[in-house]
Amino acid sequence: MFGSIYLLKNLKNSKIYIGQTTQDVNKYLEYRLSKSSQKNLNRFIDRAIMKYNRDDWVFDVLSIANTREELDSLEIKYIKEYDARNILIGYNICKGGERGPGWPKGEKNPSKNISIATRKKVGRAVSKALKGRPKSDAHKAALTASRIGPLNHMWGKKHSLATRIQMSQTRKKKYPHGTK
Q1: Is residue 137 part of a domain?
Q2: Which residue from 60, 108, 117, 167 lies 20 to 30 Å from 145 (Cα-Cα)?
Q3: Within-domain flag for 157
Q4: In a domain, 9, yes or no
Q5: Mean pLDDT of all residues in the chain?
Q6: What's the number of domains the chain is made of?
Q7: What residue ranges in the chain does DSSP mark as E strands?
Q8: pTM of the model
Q9: What is the pLDDT of residues 104-140, one digit of tens each?
Q10: Are 71 and 96 in contact (CB under 8 A)?
Q11: Is 127 inside a domain boundary?
């Protein structure tokens, strides 16, 4: 056995990450999920590991390879099969078959090539898709709990006089006759 292909799944959002290792899988994944190992926080998976608890992750060995070439081709195959590069499904950035952090030679970070206008357009489309979507009672309760008391961003603060005047003028323009 040369190495293994593993699937790491986030139980909170069901996103997956497919990777390869030539080390003992259990030891490697224990290290990977330890927060102290996260030095390369520019990768989606590393940021997600930092955000969620250890218990929010499960892993599975998908395949075992006998050579480096087989390991690389299996990783590419599984990333494509599970559509793990789709940002809604997975954390994988590269197509697979590369070792080590960062981007493979000759391949640029796709998110750096996206214009601000395109990012805004995507943001509006996502917002529009979610608008009007019914929220569960649990979600509503969580939203309420996140905004009351000391958790509220304005807790114990007051708007400055200049800000209050500006807010008043904006309301007067928006509702010229005092109606909402």
Answers
A1: no
A2: 167
A3: no
A4: yes
A5: 84
A6: 1
A7: 3-10, 16-21, 57-65
A8: 0.54
A9: 555 555 555 677 888 888 888 888 888 888 888 998 9
A10: no
A11: no
